[in-house]
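Appendix B, example 12.
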Amino acid sequence: MRKILGALRRADERFSMIGPGDKIAVGLSGGKDSMLLLYALHLYQKYAKKAYDLLAVTVDLGFGNYATGVMQEYADGLGVPLHILKTNISEIVFDIRKEKNPCSLCAKMRKGAFYEKAKELACTKAAFAHHGDDVIQTLLMSLMYEGRMNTFSPKSYLSRREITLVRPFVFLRERDIVSAVGRLHIPIAKNPCPIDFSTKREQAKEIVAYLNSLYPGAADNMLGAVKTTETYNLWNKNWNF
């Protein structure tokens, strides 16, 4: 866990993610990333020279086969309160709206439900487990589907929700998370979504992997380009063409 906690600490220090007295709600999906994040923030409570409270929120989309018991047992073992929010999001997205591309609406509704619960629990911060590879994939999807240079921020204040979102794993790569989860035998709750692994993000992940196979180190360089703002050399929006 030394590498995981070291990367978390660097992100915290660079972006001032966690402060004394914070109450942090971790978005716990049951996947490897969020399960490790909960454990890492639990350990960080002991080593960071700042006192903060920690809890987890799981949004049950209503598919009926979500292994929330796995997450409950895991959170109980850490001594972290887990709040499971049952919703009918899957019915709205797949049955009522019959969305052809359901991921966007599902994510919007899932995050909305999560933030509402976090505010109900008087949380000052929300923590998601997005990592460095997610940064690259989001940038690539933005270029391909939106025609703009954009990716998510390590820390964002959501004024409409009155809560600050932090992503403590932005300096980690997915391979680091996979390795840590395997060594620590952290349990995983399978994603019940019927289109899991067939999304645009999975396609972007495959593209990045292919580029990295052609040009070893390409993914590291892409992430480095995002982190090192001093080297940006894009067209200035004030230029007239």
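The chain has one domain: 2-135+151-193. The longest strand covers residues 53-60.
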